[in-house]
Amino acid sequence: MNDKLVRKWNFTGPWNDERIERWLERLAAEGLHLESVGALGQYRFRRGAPGRVMYRIDVAMNRKKPDADYVQLMTDAGWRMAAEQGNLYYWRTSDPHAPEIFTDAASRAAKYERLARNYGLMLALSLLFFVKSAVVLYIDGTLSKTETFLAPLWTVLLAQTLYAYRRLRARIEAVRLAAAP
Hints:
Layout: E1 5-9, H1 17-29, E2 32-37, E3 42-47, E4 54-59, H2 68-76, E5 80-85, E6 88-93, H3 105-140, H4 145-179
Helix pairs in contact: 3-4
């Protein structure tokens, strides 16, 4: 088999994890197996034999290395870590009988809550820089060259993060409503 790495881009937000999982599964069926996930939607795949592979994405409690007990639990259940990016863990299995990672609404909602906390922190930092730039502009009437360059980028980041945070909150609510009797 050709062992070449292939790079693909996918800008789907992590709150749309099921969509990303289906995309990864389609690529595995074509012989592209997830190798790593980079920043800004960059995915790297190793070309191999086409196969039926299931992917699941989990959100860790923090950015540290995954807990050994957690990895062992997943491994015992038939899942293997395919990649990690920040606190997102991408798991894969070719066992069609492997148990699902999230079997109830409470655990799925908790996963999205962990992700929402990350976006909440990014939102707070973006707002802080945005307000700082506005105050400097108001007081001095001008921004430094660096601030002039960064202000639009932070504004875009602020808008994107706010959008992501709102989508996550909506996803959490939808999961909870779907589980309500």
